[in-house]
Write a structure and sequence with these properties.
The complex is a heterotetramer, with 2 copies of chain A and 2 copies of chain B. The N and C termini of chain A lie far apart (43 Å). Chain A is an alpha/beta fold. Chain A has helices at residues 6-20, 44-47, 59-71, 90-97, 100-103, 133-137, 150-162, 211-223, 242-252, 267-278, 301-304, 311-323; strands spanning 2-5, 24-28, 52-54, 75-79, 113-118, 143-145, 167-172, 179-182, 195-198, 203-207, 229-233, 236-238, 255-262, 288-292. Chain A has a 7-stranded mixed β-sheet with strand order 3-2-4-5-7-6-12, sandwiched between helices. In chain A, helix 8 (211-223) crosses helix 12. Chain A has 2 domains: 2-182, Rossmann fold; 195-323, Rossmann fold (3-Layer(aba) Sandwich). The radius of gyration of chain A is 19 Å and the shape is globular. The model of chain A has no long low-confidence stretch (mean pLDDT 98). Chain B is an alpha/beta fold. Helix content of chain B is 44%, strand content 10%. Chain B is built from 12 helices and 7 strands. Chain B has helices at residues 5-30, 45-52, 68-73, 78-86, 120-133, 151-162, 182-185, 210-225, 254-263, 266-276, 282-305, 311-314; strands at residues 60-62, 139-144, 167-173, 176-177, 180-181, 202-206, 231-236. Chain B has a 5-stranded parallel β-sheet with strand order 1-2-3-7-6, sandwiched between helices. The longest helix of chain B is centred in the first third of the chain and has 26 residues, at 5-30. The chains are: A alpha/beta, B alpha/beta. Chains in contact: A-B, A-C, A-D, B-C, B-D, C-D. At the A-B interface, helix 3, helix 4, helix 5 and helix 10 of A face helix 5 and helix 6 of B. Bound molecules: thiamine diphosphate (2 copies) and magnesium ion (2 copies).
């Protein structure tokens, strides 16, 4: 075990995978300078010359090239500098990468990872803070992976690189520098397997990305109220580990689904609806969703502080659920 | 490859195969066996055939919504192609793709595509793959004149040039973009003239002349294989049918269509040249056509007798995961 | 009242709005030839010369131009030939049209209608059959309108054209030729107001687009089983008329949410989650969702028939709900 | 407008205002008052000012992520601009936009934009609006050299040309695209050379020379106003600061930066020319700079004293509807 930051964990996984498999390469804007915008591609240009492509500003072209390279048997790791820019390449992601295997009756493989730095970081307002996990959940053929810890990030990234199918890899900018213990050497974490980050009996908090840590902190504080909270981290939103989530909710009878993205038609809506459908008889309280309000991300710090959900929101929702 | 009687005969045969395949597919539509729609390639056969005759099996080809010809010219099975149009389990895509998605990955024909201009990026990507693997495979992207307006054209060709990738961009300028004459929506006449923006050679050719296509494609493919980068070829052509099935074609006169058919049918032109040069006898010609017709007939039988995909096929081929999504 | 087809109703609304307001114009591919792909723009070129723009194939450019024209006070009606092609213009829709008003602190107005022929029509497979309502629901700043009848289509289209904010106007290709009574002359239907298409006491079917008609037919058949079904048509998915839906569910105690799109992270998930949250105490059975499986649309008719939900699915779900 | 001492003085004054505004904003960032990031326009002022000096208030301008200069040159209030960077309720956008979204719709300055290349389509759209309304308003689109690689450039300019719209596309070629030198990712040197693909005039100019910008922009604006269609102008320039705050600039030498600053500062160049021509005295020069500094100081005070937006502002300006989404 080694303590490292979230971005370092991904960088380590990327180095190891490039070492292991010659078909892995990196493509994106500004990836070879300054270690890339988030230092995730630091050292790649030196260690693997000729396997990193710094591109013009052309997201549709970049992702399109990734699709073709992947179909030809390579394993591109595509970096979009901000998740928000995936809007410039949605045909490539949704109509090409995601559907190619199906449309060709299983002939095509598109083993591509698209790295998506998302959520709020520095205050950069509406066009640089989006999350949009639910868009990609809704697209069959895509895998949607959202690690919350450095250890998960490393193991999931490796699995993503080795997957025969496209992976939308969500990296919350806010937790790039958060640290954690990371196993050394090679290990993988299956895509589609949730992780019970804390066991408890009274209520289930299903938490996505940075909400995992906030929920764990909330759980500690809720101990004082005598509540024993279970925290489930889906880790991948598609495929979604329905079994683990439902098992937990059947046990506790209460569920709170938390993400940083806005709730309306967001990832939490799918999870909440699924719980409502599968665990109806076991529910002692309505499934609650926690997330941002349905507004574009504002710029001013005074507005932003009302947008992103914090652990206090988790505590409040658990209390409401317990009181119901 | 230099032009020989054999090459000509192979091209001529393939052109007939494409022509008769499509005419039969159209007929099968009227019978209700082929569903969806068809974008007929009739009239443009010299381009697919001229270009693909310069390729190896391991060279990559990506197509468009109008790709029956690209697929067949790359060597795809006529049986499987017909079965795909029928929606049968034996089709090139198991019935999941249909006319707009025909593909044969065993031949590195990576598919037709329903989105205009969507193949240009991916073809640049297959070329990047070849470069990374140090093979000398060449990638060919076919696309229409309409696609040249899309941002993907601009973005992808720029990177193809930047990294000197082994790719040939082949624009099939049939002068229409669905129902709109190119002259109504384009600001320059020749797509090849855009090559300067990407610092690559651009050349405009007569797409009805298989020999010219063959020559020029040969140079571009050789150039790409030598690692000297992309070429943009515009092949001037004309589609003999409407844009897709049911097109009333109010936007052009039947006179115009007839003139192209009688003066510029690429099959007639190649046949005549070969006969002039003594490379084709009337008898051989008849045999070639009969042979192609027989293959097409067999393909229809194959398609008719093939099984349908079933519910068990519905959720396969989405990803390697079982769905697992509730 | 006049009987007319769905596409004719939109065409009529478009003609009337162009007559009424000089700032309305049409832009899109092939819109001026053959009456446009769905005959919705038939006659516009003749009646309003110079106010219809037939474009090159350039969806990002087209929508971008729409955004600018709208900000300059025009009211563009943008046609995307197939909803699927909106993937080529997502930055323009999501980062520009939707957010401009907010980012500029209320200075910008983007009164643009984007017409989205969607769902399955002829069998054209995965890249020509998508629906994706939930993507746009998830984007603050967009209105998502989904009419199910010719009368609603006309009234909602007029409201959409007059709205100061962008409207994603969903037109299910399958019902373009379906007929209905349409009031003559000028009338509007507010965006954000659901319509109870049939009153009933035993269960609420919330049905989107073509599922409305199928649900009404199912309701008639369910009378034989002694079930009295209420059918609620949200008509707009964003804003969503939470009150009308919840009022119905509180009355009946049962809810089935039906759309043609795939359920996973789809529009039905938001509605189901919302009902679960707001009507928990009144629910006698789990909220069920009906929609497509999570697969790209296949080509073969033999596969397609297993994808699109029909009235039999509604009947089955109602029966399950009543039995719970 | 022809070049006069008055025009020069106005331009010179505006350039100082922009320069000092940004230098102060940078300082306020270090104090923690300005948050987020800043894309500094320092070094490129001649372009915004030269172009906007040819415009009427009702002409449209759309900008980029680097648009402090575009906004101020179009006439935006320096107070409101500073307040926006502070995130205050009195900012141009009520604190909702910040540096990347400054805008003043009362001046038809329709906003900076955080997405590279995203303004080119909308500016073509404002031009279409003017054409439809038969006004003679001109639309100006500023964008970087990096943006010229985006598909939006290709698609929008093509339609601008097709419909002969009154728009001028102004590329600010500062030779870098974030941290990457243009020469590493571009295949042709001058963005103006792409104009041929769109059948419009393309011209490359020295963007450090306000007078050259003024002249050439004047012609392009006049051409657009006469209904003769778009022009593509490439203005060669250089940014004196890093791409955005905190940029370590390992990708260029400080020598290079210093050379540009000492030889090609657009403000120094214009000042020197004016003095040579006897259009500016040292005293006037001093006054102009003092005046600009005083305005900036006042703007900071305004921003400091302004109220914050509150929770009540959070959900306004989304649409005209109340949210109504649960
Ligand atoms: C992105 C996109 N926009 C629009 C369409 C609808 N469409 C299909 S084919 C076509 C015309 C294509 O013209 P061109 O590229 O010249 O090819 P051609 O049909 O002439 O072979 C259009 C508009 C599409 N499939 N994809
Ligand atoms: C579509 C998109 N891709 C990437 C970015 C990130 N980004 C912001 S500015 C920039 C460089 C832009 O270069 P250029 O257009 O030359 O403008 P400059 O910064 O030099 O003024 C990049 C890559 C973005 N904002 N939008
Ligand atoms: Mg064409
Ligand atoms: Mg630049």
């Amino acid at each position: 075990m080694k303590t490292m930051a979230f971005n370092e964990a991904i960088r380590t996984a990327l180095h190891e995978e490039m070492q292991r498999d010659e078909s892995v390469f990196v493509i994106g804007e500004d990836v070879a300078t300054h270690g890339g915008p988030y230092k995730v591609t630091d050292g790649i240009a030196e260690a693997f010359p000729g396997r990193i492509f710094e591109t013009p500003i052309a997201e549709a072209g970049i992702v399109g090239i990734g699709v073709g390279a992947a179909m030809a048997g390579m394993r591109p790791v595509v970096e979009l500098m901000y998740l928000d820019f995936v809007t410039c390449a949605m045909d490539e992601v949704v109509n090409q990468a995601a559907k190619m295997r199906y449309m060709t009756g299983g002939q095509a493989r598109v083993p591509m990872v698209i790295r998506l730095p998302c959520g709020i970081g520095r205050l950069l307002a509406a066009q640089h803070s989006q999350i949009l996990e639910s868009w990609f959940m809704h697209v069959p053929g895509l895998q949607v992976v959202v690690p919350s810890t450095p250890a998960d990030a490393k193991g999931l990234f490796k699995t993503a690189v080795r997957s025969p199918d496209p992976v939308m890899f969500f990296e919350y900018k806010r937790i790039y520098t958060s640290k954690g213990e990371v196993p050394e050497g090679d290990y993988t974490i299956p895509i589609g397997q949730a992780d019970v980050k804390r066991e408890g009996e009274d209520a289930t908090v299903v938490a996505i990305g940075p909400m995992v840590q906030k929920s764990l902190e909330a759980a500690v504080l809720l101990e004082d109220d005598g509540y024993d909270i279970e925290v489930v981290d889906p880790r991948s939103l598609s495929p979604l580990d329905v079994d683990t989530i439902c098992e937990s909710v059947r046990k506790t009878g209460r569920a709170i689904v938390c993400g940083e993205d806005s709730t309306f038609a967001g990832a939490a809506s799918e999870i909440a609806a699924m719980i409502g459908e599968n665990c109806f008889g076991d529910l002692k309280a309505p499934v609650r969703r926690i997330g941002s309000p349905h507004v574009p991300m504002p710029f001013s710090s005074e507005l932003v502080k009302h947008v992103v959900p914090e652990k206090s929101h988790v505590i409040e929702a658990v209390n409401q659920s317990m009181a119901a | 490859m230099s032009l020989s009687p054999e090459v000509c005969k192979t091209m001529y045969t393939m052109m007939w195969r494409i022509r008769l395949f499509e005419e039969e597919a159209d007929r099968q539509t009227n019978l209700g066996n082929v569903v969806g729609t068809l974008h007929m390639y009739c009239g443009e056969e010299a381009i697919a055939v001229g270009v693909c005759s310069q390729l190896r099996t391991d060279d990559y080809v990506l197509g468009t919504h109008r790709s029956h010809g690209h697929c067949l010219a790359k060597g795809a099975s006529i049986d499987k192609m017909m079965a795909e149009l029928f929606g049968k389990a034996t089709g090139t895509c198991g019935g999941k793709g249909g006319s707009m998605h025909v593909a044969d990955f065993s031949l590195n024909m990576l598919g037709a595509n329903g989105i205009v201009g969507a193949g240009i990026g991916p073809t640049t990507g297959t070329a990047l793959a070849s470069k990374l693997r140090h093979t000398d495979q060449v990638s060919i992207c076919f696309f229409g004149d309409g696609a040249a307006a899309r941002g993907t054209f601009h973005e992808a060709i720029m990177m193809g040039s930047l990294w000197k990738l082994p790719v040939v961009y082949v624009c099939e300028n049939n002068q229409y973009q669905q129902w709109v004459p190119r002259k109504n929506v384009a600001v320059i006449d020749s797509v090849a003239d855009m090559a300067g923006s990407y610092a690559i050679p651009g050349v405009s050719i007569n797409g009805q002349d298989a020999l010219e296509v063959y020559e020029v494609a040969g140079e571009a493919v050789a150039r790409a294989r030598r690692g000297e980068g992309p070429t943009l070829i515009e092949a001037r052509t004309y589609r003999f049918y409407g844009h897709s099935l049911g097109d009333e074609q109010q936007y052009r006169t039947s006179d115009e269509v007839e003139k192209w058919k009688s003066n510029s049918d690429p099959i007639q032109l190649l046949g005549a040249t070969m006969k002039e040069r003594g490379w084709l006898t009337d008898e051989e010609d008849g045999n070639i056509q009969q042979q192609a017709a027989a293959e097409v007939k067999k393909a229809v039988e194959f398609a008719e007798q093939s099984p349908w995909p079933t519910l068990a096929n519905l959720e396969t081929d989405v990803t390697s995961h079982s769905l697992g999504v509730a």
